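Honest question from a wet-lab person: if I give you the sequences of every part of a complex, can you actually get the arrangement of the whole thing, not just the pieces? Trying it with mine:
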Amino acid sequence: MPNLKILAIDDSPTMRRIIVNTLKRAGFENVSEASDGKDALAKLKTDKFDFIITDWNMPEMDGLTFVNSVRSDPELQSLPILMVTTRSVKEDIMQAIKAGVNNYIVKPFTPETIAEKINQVLASV
Amino acid sequence: MPGKNPEMVDKIRRELNDLTSSISKMMELFRQIKQPIQESSEKVPSTTMQLEKVTQQTEKATHKVLDIVELLTNRNSEIIEICHKIDSVLESGSGKAAEVGKLLENIMDNANANLSDTMVIMEALQFQDITSQQIDHAVSQLEDVESKLKTLLISTGMAKANEVVQNDKKNRAFDPNAKYDADHQNQQREVDDLISSIVKTD
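Yes, you can. This is the full assembly:
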């Protein structure tokens, strides 16, 4: 899916850069960035995206609140969301799935994992 | 004190003397601990700043490495592209085509291996996000200690509220359990298994 328009949300500029580079290597060239949930919601209002990759711990608006906002918005609710976070506690993962994320990656991740999860999510929606 | 029990009066006097002496000792103790508490609370902001510097400098260094990794990635992609072009020229006919073709294949294999290695470097650089969250956690705990020490100084009367400097706190978002797991592929497998079990239950 080389034309897939992806929005990568992370407060760490390092992580955004790593995610963008990893996605490019996997053939996903069309990637935009947002620094937290609030910034992402503003970008989703003005631009159309096919896929979202979001971190959990972010200032202003965290990833979970962002997922809840997207899932409660009739225009955005069907957007596939992949959460990429350091949070590996079972309860957190269950909470994220309950909130509506389509899949979950724990940092640090391998380039293969992120490409594999995107394809898995796309095949399931 | 006419009509009062002299023994009782004497006892009360002794108790009052003891109490005064205890209060004096306590005041002395407060005076003694005031300085260490004040010094400790003043040290926290500089430690916090120092830790923040660690995050900033590691981030800067990580971005420098990323700059080079990006350059290497682009150069390798170009090398592979050039090899493909030469290969297609050779296919159109040349005397030593097979020999040159083999050399080209070798160059391409190496370039592809370099590209894979740059991705491994990229993967390892995720440590910077994780260590910065760990530092943020430590800083937030230090800020908590600072705030408690300042409250203690004010509530015990060792310092006046306007004498205690309140520093602006940064809005920090971090995972207190963030860790760089060397065996992260195994960790991801556990997450995948958990998600599968949740999906199956639903």
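Two things worth pointing out. Chain B touches chain A at residues 59, 62-63, 66, 69-70, 73, 115, 119, 122-130, 132-133, 171-175, 177-181, 184-185, 187-188, 191, 194-195, 198-199 (CB under 8 Å). The longest helix of chain B spans residues 6-91.
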